[in-house]
Design brief:
By secondary structure, the protein is α/β, with parallel strands linked by helices. The protein is 54% helix and 10% strand.
Amino acid sequence: MKVRLGIDVACRAAHQAACANEAGEFVFSGRRFRTTVEDLERLWASLPGDAEEVLVVMEPTRNAWVPLAAWFAAKGAKIAMVTPEQSSDLRKYYHKHTKNDRLDARILARIPLLHPEGLRLQGEAELGPADPLRRATRRRRKRRTATSQRIDALLEIYGPQWARVLGEGDYAKAALTVLERTGADPRALKRLGHKRLTALLIRASRGAWRDERAATILQAAEVTQALWAAGGLDFAELAEDLSGEARLALQLNEEIKALDSRIGVLYDEADPAQIIASGPGMAAISAAVVLGALGNPDRFDNLAGVRAFTGLTPSLDESGTSSRHGPPTKAGDPALREALFGAADRARKIDPTLAARYQRLVVTEGKHHNSAVCTLAAILVTRLAACWRTRTPYQLRDTDGTAITVEHGRAISIERYTVTDADRAKNRPKRASKRLKEGKGTSRRGQESSDDAPAAGPSSNKATRRKVA
C-alpha cells in the first residue's frame, strides 16, 4: 500500500496533515501537529502499518518545511514539493469560496493522483535553504543591492550629474568615502577644497582617483548649488542621510569580503574539481551562485530540466495551429539568472562558439542584446551541467571543434565575431515596428481606455437629472 501525506506547513501555528491512499481515499485528515519529535513520531505512527511507500507532499512555506522534510526523509519517506500557485489553483477548482488549512492539506494529499506532473521530488540531502553555500551567496547579493539603491535615490535629489561622477549601483570605496565624509553637500565639498579632496580620493582609491576626479566632483557640487539656488532643499539633512547610507555600505563591503572568503571555502568543498568555475566568464562568486542555486545538477532528469529550472527558456503560447514563443518564463531563482546572464555576457568575448551564436542572433535575426545574452546563458548552463555529469572541466573550442586557449578564443571572438554599434542600430527600427504592431510600444497616455472603465470622479459638482424615455 502506498500512502500520500499532504502537509499544510505553518510558520508559527500548528501544521495540518491529511493522509490518502493510492485511490485518493482519505485515511485521515485535519491531523494537527507541530515541529517536535514527539508530534512527528505520533503522526508517523498513525500512518497505515502496511504502507510500503510514504510520499510527503508540501509547499515550500518560507523555511519551515526544511526540518519537516529532513525528518521524514530520515524515516525513509519520499519528499515532493509543490509550488503554492499550483495547489492554490487546484483548491479553487474544487472549492472556489473556501480556504482553510484542512482543505489545503487534503488537496496536497490528492495532488499525486490529480496532477503528478506538478510534483518535484527532492533528492537526498536536497534541502535548499539548509545548504550553507546557497545561503551565503543569497546573503551576499541582497544586502549590497538594497543599500546601493537607496544611495542612488538620494543622489538623484541633488541632480543627475552625480551618477556620472560617482557612478551608480556598485559604488567604489572612494565614492563611498566621499559620501561618508561630506554627504555630497556642495557647501561641505567647497570647504574641503580641491587639494584636500584630491588627497582623500588618492588614499581611498589607492591612486585610481586623482585631481581630475576631484575637479569633476567639485563641478557637480556647483551644478547642484545652482539647481537649488531658489531653496527648497536642506543640504545638511540630505547629507546626513547619505553619510549614514555610505557608512552602512562601507561596513557591508567589509562583511562581504569576509563572506567571499567563506563562499570560496564552501565552493571548494562542493566542487573540488572546479568544474563550474572552469566555464568561460565564470568568476569565483558567480560559480558559487550557480552551484548554490542549482544544488546538485545530477538531480535533474535531463539537461532540458536544467534549462527550465533557470527560467531562461522562452514561454510558449500555443493554440490550435498557432504557436508563438514569448519572453523567458523567469521561473526559479532570480540570483541564478543574474549570475548566468553576467557570465554569458563575458563568455561571448572568450568562447568563439558563443560569440558566433551572439553575432547571428543580433546581426542576422535582429535580437536585442539582452535577448541574445539570455539565449547564451541557457546554452552556458546546459554545457556546465553536462560537464558536471561527466566530471570534466569546460573545454574552449573553435567553431570547427578545435581545442583552444582562452587567449586564442578571445582573439578569434574579436577578429571574426565583433558586433559593432552600426550592426545593432540597423535592427532597432524593425524591433520598434514589431513592438508597435504588438501594442507594446504605445504609451499609457495613447492607450484607449475600455468602455467600462470607471470615471475618476464627477465632471462637475452639480447634480444632474436623467431623462426617462
